[in-house]
Each structure stands twice: as structure tokens, then as C-alpha cells.
Amino acid sequence: VATYCIPLHEISLVDVPRVGGKTASLGELIRELSATGVRVPTGFAVTADAYSAVLERGETQPKLRALLAGLDPSDTADLARRGRHARQLVIDAGIPSDVRDAIANSYRALEAELGAHVDVAVRSSATAEDLPEASFAGQQATFLNIRGGESVVRACLECFASLFTDRAIAYRQIRGYDHFSVRGAIAVQQMIRSDRGAAGVIFTLDPESGNRDIVIVTGAWGLGESVVAGQVDPDEVLVFKPTINSGHDAILRRKIGAKQTRIVYGGRGGATTHAVPVADADRQRRCFTDSDALTLARWAMAIESHWSEKLGHAAPMDIEWAKDGRDGALYVVQARPETVHARHDPNVLRRWHLATHPPARVRGVAIGSGAASGPVRVIDGVEHLSEVKEGEVLVADMTDPDWVPALRKAAGVVTNRGGRTCHAAIVSRELGVPCVVGTGHATAVLRTGDVVTIDCSHGGVGEVLEGAVPFSVEEIHVDALPATKTKIMLILADPERAMHHARLPVAGVGLVRLEFITANAIGIHPLAALRPNDLSAEVRTALEERTRGYASPAEFWLAKLTEGIATIAAAFWPREIIVRLGDFKSNEYAGILGGGSFEPREENPMIGLRGASRYVHPMFADAFALECKAMVRVREAMGLTNVKLMVPFCRTPDEGKRVLEAMASHGLVRGRQGLEVWVMCEIPSNVVVIDRFAELFDGFSIGSNDLTQLVLGVDRDSELLAPLFREREEAVMRMIAQAIRGAHAHGRPIGLCGQAPSDDPEFARFLVSEGIDSISLNPDAVLRAMDVVADAERATR
């Protein structure tokens, strides 16, 4: 017996064939997770039986089958013609009276529960939609702010017709789904007044790297369509799963997006919603609180756990949420398995190598990890999509689901707006097409016919480069890489790339360059942040602009450094990361905003006020205290105890002792909660009295560049002396050997940071024969180094 409507609370995942993946998920959430606090709007399903009843009227299905026979989805003009005709056939068929009655009665029951004239969302839930193997993201229609039984019936008919949107037809054809094995179904849900509040998207993994320790929560003011469709640059918060329930601060990173517009109720010409500009004050603050983010992350983890148990394997989730602006209540309005990383083999790494790196014409958020070249095609409206040719780089303000047939032709995608969870990002990942979103002005900078290369191979920042840059793709099978006794570790600086690089089979990070975060993510001298009144009016204005939205410039500085280190630590958790405290020289620090007011002019900054000497100098003690405060937050408040610290350029044991005392006075007590403090071994004095340094520090890291410079008396920055700068000089190698033996004689581990071992097999054999404990390299040299070190270990057995 056909059943046309079912209350959501009576539905579970076993009902997918009757109500589709989206509605089955909603029913499952209500039935199984309400007790855990997950809140889902109530409603009812309009079943696939109702859809079949529509198609059985007036020979509609045979007509549709004939219409779609022989379709070529790459012919966008023909696809659009057939799609229009197909949708009209469904509309003309109309809703049978018994189906109409069932929908009207279910709506009246909802009114009895929630109040007369309740607003509802009428959302397509086709029987192949939101499945683990196929997302069908945005393929069918959703109608918001619908009120009254007749309006709901009409919206349901239009939902059924939307099974034949151009994008849905093309998607089914390309993915091999029979058009009539996929049946329409609908979720009718109570509307949450997020038009007065906020809404967005959650992923229970990092959508670029696939790191499953991360929950990413994005959102914007108003209805969630603006985030899903990429109409705005959303706010974004990263939450760390392993510490969320341990009493620690689990928020790794916070980003305030531009949130250019918000979608609200009402509109012209009978539209039920429309977009309005967001006031500047609202654009400059987050649309959801830290507490909201943590609640949503916990709900998302509960949903992921439940789905994983149901499916019998790990099931990262893609979830939509909404916040009611009247009472501040949070809701989950959709949940589906994530489909991109679920299909990837985690044992296979792909790396893109570009032959050159010309200037970037625009930058934005990188989606995917690849590269692609082609001529630009700027599209300023859906009516021009048929102009997109195979292999072009599609450039637009934003995309929406109607653009899918054109996106399938594109070599790459670039948008002005959108974040990592927008439509362009989701579809590009699924298609395996490199994409750069949120560039701000790509349509103004790039012109149709320009040849460009999209480069998303370096992690979080994507670039559109001038010209067709040759590139190659390397495929690495992790289980085929050689195992080494010597630990292979990374040298890292950019938190945006940490999740991507953490996929490498390394023991951790042997060197985190804190000064990169200072220069790039912060961009402000620490003393300028602490003493803004000492700056010129012009510099102070620039400082205020950069730190807007924070309680003070010092809090901005502290927050950004904390987030940068925490992101790297979380990416590699529980593997160790060794953070080298700031090692800027005075001329480098002077180049940062506000630095000119505080830095001395030195004749030779390379051997001037840097490293340990700076930390204990009265002029800069306050700046070091700020660094220490960030490290305390990371290790103690956030629980990221895989962070070790390292003191650079420490000239004497007495200086090292004073640094440790200063660190302890700021809460970084060596040994507390397992804190290890290492020291760079890069000055001859570090080697000559290594026994004294070993009494103070937990380990050593040889900085081969500075050690070579100071052993040979060669300025490493001098082009005139470049031929003399060699780690393989006998004096340098003797110094390194002495350091390794001295460290081991006093029970301390010692590593080396630098490219030489991967570039020079003889140097690698020397280090292995001397018993070096670890070698840290830049990410692009790691895989080559594994082979070199493995060969060296075999040769020295």
C-alpha cells in the first residue's frame, strides 16, 4: 500500500528507499540522537510513493524517458532545452488528489504541534541523494519560508520537478544512475529563524587534507544558503576533537569572514527569500560564539560516531546547522556522509611539482591539492555557461548548483567569494578539479583568454599564476617507503600547510619556525603590539586596522601566535613538534609593522642581538614574555603537550640558564607536564662545552647553516663567499661529529635541521655513521631523504 507522508520521528536510515537519504538522516537524528542533546527541527516526509504517483499521471514517465534518451550532458545547450521540457512535464502532471490530501493533513498536524500558519522548508530528498558514495549536493530544489497547506503542496510539486534540473540530469548521467531508479522524496521541516540569526556548514574532518582530528565550523548571518552557495566568505572555527572533552580549550583557530550579505525572508515578485547587505559592525564580528562552535562540534562528533557505527566504518560527516535569532537555539538541519575523502586511499600521496613559480595574479583559499593550466573563461551569469569550453579555467563571482555541467568541463575554478565549505569547493573536490575561492577580485583581474595556472599544491593558500607553468604529478605509496632507524622529521613554518604536510610518514616536526608566523600571520612587531602609543600616527592607524575586532593589539598578537602553533601541533598530534622560539635578527624585525620604532641598527645583525640574548635583554623582555604566554596557552590551556620548545643562538651556558629562568617566570617550567626545552647547536661554544649545555637542556638540534658560518668565518648571506660555504668542509664535519658524540655521552638526543642530508648522500652517510638521532628537512625533500638515509643505514651496518 502506498504511503505518501510519514512524520520525521517515525523514520530511520532503513527508510532511504522510501524517503531518500536526506530525510532518512533527519529521522535518524531525531530518533537516535535527541537524547544526546542534538536538536533537529520537526516535520514530515513526502515519500517516493508520492513522486511515483505524480509520474504515473498522463503517461508522464514514458514521455520523460523518451525525452532524455541519447542525452549528451556535455552539450549544455541541448541539456538546458531537455531539462526545461522535463520539468514542465512534471509540473503539468500535477499532484494527485490523494497525495494532496496527505500533504495538507500532515501540514495541519504540524500546525497543531507548533502553531497555526507555521513556516516550513520544503527540501528535496531524492532516493540517491546524500548517500556515502554520491552526494548529489545541491542537485535538487529547496523552498524556504513556505506557509499554508496549498503553498506546501505547490512547493512539493516543484521539488519533484527539480529532479530534472540540468545539473541533476547531468550528474546522474555521468555517475551512471538511471534517471528513473532515482525517485523524488521531500522533507518538510519547521523553519528555523536563522534569517534573524546565523547558519552554516560543519565538516567532521579537514576538507582539504582529510585530517580526522578536526571539526571545521563555518557560518554567516542569515539563512544557510549564502554559505552553501558560496555567496559570502564565512566565519570559520577549527575545533580539535582529541581535547574537546578533556577540559581544555579545543578551539585551534578562529577566522572572521567578510560575510558580505545575509539571506532573509521576503522579496520581490513572490520570492520567499532575498539577500541584503550586512552592516559593517556585523561583518567585523563572528556570527557564532565559541560556545556555539563547541556545542556544534560535539553534536557533529556524536553524529559521526553514530553513522560510523551504523555503516560499520569511519564516516566523516557534512552537516548543516542553523541558529534561531529569536531564542538563540542551535539546530542541525541536515547531515550526510562526506563523499570525497571517503573514496581516497590514505596510503597514496600525490604531489604536484611546478617547474617555475611566476608571480601570482590573485590569491585565495586553496581547494584540493593539485594544479591545472588553461585559458580563462570569465562567466558573469548562468546564461553564459554554455560558452565554457573543455579545459578552460572558469572564473566567476561565485557558483551555484546550476553550474555543475559547466564545472565538469573546467580545468580549474576561481571565485571571488566563498569559503572551504561552499558549493564551488565541495563540487571541485568531488570532481578532482583544483579551485581557488574567496579571491575577492578575480573577475576584475583576470580576462577571458588569459592563460593561467592554478596552483593549490602548497596547502591552504591557492594562487593563480601567470601563464601555463609546466608541472608533474608524483604518486607515492606510503607502505612502499623505506623504514629508517634515524627519525625523519619536518621543518615547517606555515600553519596553513600543516594539515597537508602531516599526511607525510614522518616522526613529527623537528623545527617550527616561529618567526614565519610572526611575519606573515601576525605582521606586527611584538613591542608595537604592546606599546602602540610609542608609534607614529600613521603606523598606529595601520596597527588598529590590522587588529580590529580584538580587545587590544597585544591580544591579537597573542591569539594569532597561539593559533598558528596550535594548528601545527594538532595537525601532527600526537607526534612531537619542536618550536624554535623567535630567531629574528634586528634588521628582519625592523621590517615588520612598527619594528622601526624598537629595533637597534647593528653593523652585523647575523651575530648581533638575536635568539637567547634578545630574550633576556631588558629592551625586549616584554616581547619574550608575550611569546611565552602563547606557548603556555598552547600546552596548558589547549592541552597540546606534544609541543617542545627550543632556544636558538644561545652563546653561553649562563645565558641558557637565564633564559630558562625567564621562561619559568612566565609559566614555562621545564619538566612540568612533560615540557622539554631543547637548544640549537649552531655556535662553536655549544659544541665545545656541550656537557654544560646538556645539564640545562633536554636535547640539541644542529643548525648546520649557522654552525658552518661560524666555524668557517663565512657570512652565509655573502654571494662573494658562497663557494666557501660548505657543510662538507672537514672542520665543520669534525664539529658536527663532536656535537653528536658529546650529546650522546651526556644522555641527550641530537638532530640536524637542513637540506644537506637529502642533497648529499655522502653527508647523510656521515651523519648516520655518527649516530644522529633525527634529520629534519623541508617537506619537498622528505621522501627523497628517506631513500638516502635508508641507503646510508644499510651502508654503515
Short structural description:
With 797 residues, the chain is of the alpha/beta class. The protein contains 29 helices and 30 strands.
Q: Can you put this structure into words, describing what you see?
A:
This protein is α/β, with parallel strands linked by helices and 797 residues long. The chain is built from 29 helices and 30 strands. The strands form six sheets. The chain has an eight-stranded parallel barrel with strand order 23-24-25-26-27-28-29-30, surrounded by six helices. Strands 15-19-18-17-16-20-21 form a seven-stranded mixed beta barrel. α3 (60-68) runs antiparallel to α4 (76-93), α25 crosses α26 and α28 packs across α29 (782-795). The protein is elongated, with a radius of gyration of 29 Å.
